[in-house]
Amino acid sequence: MAEPVVTEKKITLSKHDRFKVAWRTQFLQGSWNYERMQNGGWCYSMIPALNKLYQKKEDRVAAYQRHLEFFNTHPYVTSPIIGVTLSLEEERANGAPIDDAAIQGVKVGMMGPLAGVGDPVFWFTVRPMIGALGASLALGGSIMGPILFFVAWNIIRFATIWYTQEFGYKAGNAITDDLSGGLLQMITRGASMMGMFVIGALIERWVNIKFTPVVSRIQQQKGAYIEWDKLPSGHAGIKEALSQQAAGRTLDKVKVTTLQDNLDSLIPGLVPLLLTFLCMWLLKKNVSPIVIILGIFVIGIVGHVIGLL
Amino acid sequence: MSGISMVLVVIVAFFAGMEGILDEWQFHQPLVACTLIGLVTGHLTEGIMLGGSLQMIALGWANVGAAVAPDAALAAVASSIILVQGGQGVKGIGPAVAIAIPLAVAGLFLTMIVRTITVAIVHLMDKAAKEGSSKMIDFWQYVSICLQGLRIAIPAALLLVIPASSVRGMLEAMPAWLNDGMSIGGGMVVAVGYAMVINMMASREVWPFFIIGFVVAALSDLTLIAIGALGISLALMYLALDKGGSSNGNNNGGNSNTGDPLGDILDDY
User: Fold this and answer.
1) Cα(B59)–Cα(A129) distance, rounded to whole angstroms?
2) Where are the transmembrane segments (chain B) (predicted)?
């Protein structure tokens, strides 16, 4: 018995087609709207594939329309979903009985869990980390800061888009089982750990608060400070002063201890930590971040005027 | 500022506006946007430094679900234009950062307006789909991206029209205590971004990582890359141990000889 399937010509998406889709995915959020969110960008991304798979006008109309349904997730993790949808559309174009509901079901089923991975991994771990690295270089005026941020970010981003789309395309329907499995959950957990570790470090390093009130002034003993009037003149004097300082002598006769010095001897960065906890508490009380930010500026100005900061 | 610089600034602003919604290449992040504006106006170093300061504040700003974050694009573009026009050099970075914050709020409202306009645009896309015209769907996608670009490009152009002398006059009229106070506020305001990130990620499991990170950061010999490497290693170790522990737990039921020699010794003891 001859199989009739053999005579049917099979349409497949080439690597080039899939790359075109991946490129277009980068404009996913361009038409973000309050009604169906990323639907326009989604349809826009799928168009090269849809046009290749469907030649008849009524097929195309149906395809465009089913890809203008509601969609919203993190922009980069859209790619594995695109990949799966591409493989479904390809099978459908070759005659497999896949209806609109199945395709929409896969999209909606995947976007929730994946958004839960994309946000902590990209917005709360990778971007703060690379951003802080670049910013810390930039604060010193180094052009390497912005370049490092831009290049590193875009390599990671496009690699994610392309490889996860390919992964989704090859795994096809099977990926939906994977989602409930351990892998995604492990990535999210690992990213959260990493992110929290770095955030802890960043708070210590980059939140600046200095309390200026003087706690004590102590007259130091002879020999604990540099006696400027007894130094030799000229560069010999500078050299002598530097070597005395290196030996542990202080610059002034009076040792001034500010409130900040006392706090630092407890643990460096204690006040920034407390300030962060305060902000977290306010945010949980649904105080708008904007209000908190403006409030902190007011505190900074008032604190400076009364001599506290 | 020369005519060419002005045109380039508006182009940079346009890119920043597009990216503010696309969130892909990150042209709207202060580190990139401020640097580019510094570059095209011949104030590269100030631009980079402003970008660094603003980036620290904007680290935790992200649009998640329905939550709305301040808009980094307008903040970065407008504050760097003001920095350049003010002509105070590096000294002007503190006030520029402070000015950027209300602008971030203004940018937010502009985004919301454009996102509402695009509702009408997707209906036009529906119509194009009905006619089977993929060209028109593409076209409307480009139109809405351009609208987002104009969202920042227009305010930037308006700022450029204000004469540099009046920007300078306004900045110089600010008393020193206000300037210094704003710089101090800028040092503290970074905490809000971190707090937003922590609120998103914190769980009982990850708090120890936070504490270790915080304590370790006091060792000033460690660069951020070293800290990052330490964090990755700790997370990997934790996950590996966790996985090993649970699979051991499952396998050990039958024979307790495999897997964990030290555990066996302790059990026997």
Assistant:
1) 9
2) 30-49, 61-84, 96-118, 139-162, 182-202, 209-241
| Same-domain check for residues B23 and B149 | yes
What's the DSSP call for residue B87?
A: T
| End-to-end Cα, chain A, rounded Å | 90
In a shared domain, residues B161 and B220: no
pLDDT single digits (tens) A152-204: 999 999 999 999 999 999 888 676 556 555 677 788 888 888 888 988 998 98
Whether B233 and B143 map to the same domain: the answer is no
- Say if residue B207 is in the same domain as residue B168: no
Both tokens of B265, joined, read 């010794």
Closest CB to B122 among A35, A149, A300: A35
Is ipTM beyond 0.90?
A: no
Instruction: Please tell me whether residues B112 and B221 are part of one structural domain.
Output: no
Q: Chain B residue closest to A55 (CA)?
A: B132
User: Counting one residue from A and one from B, how many pairs have CB atoms under 8 Å apart?
Assistant: 362
pLDDT of residue B251: 44
User: Which residue in the set B182, B200, B205 is minimally distant from A300, CB to CB?
Assistant: B182
Co-location of B170 and B207 in the same domain: no
Residue B246 shares a structural domain with residue B155: no
Cα B192 to Cα B57: distance, rounded to the nearest angstrom? 8
B190 within a domain of the structure (yes/no): no
User: Do B32 and B147 share a structural domain?
Assistant: yes
Round to whole Å and give the CA distance between A293 and B69: 12
Q: Per-residue DSSP letters for B10-67?
A: HHHHHHHHHHHHH-SS-TTSHHHHHHHHHHHHT-HHHHHHHHHHHHHHHTT----TT-
In the prediction, which pLDDT does A178 show?
60
Q: Is residue B193 assigned to a domain?
A: no
Indicate the number of domains in chain B: 2
**What is the domain range of residue B78?**
3-175
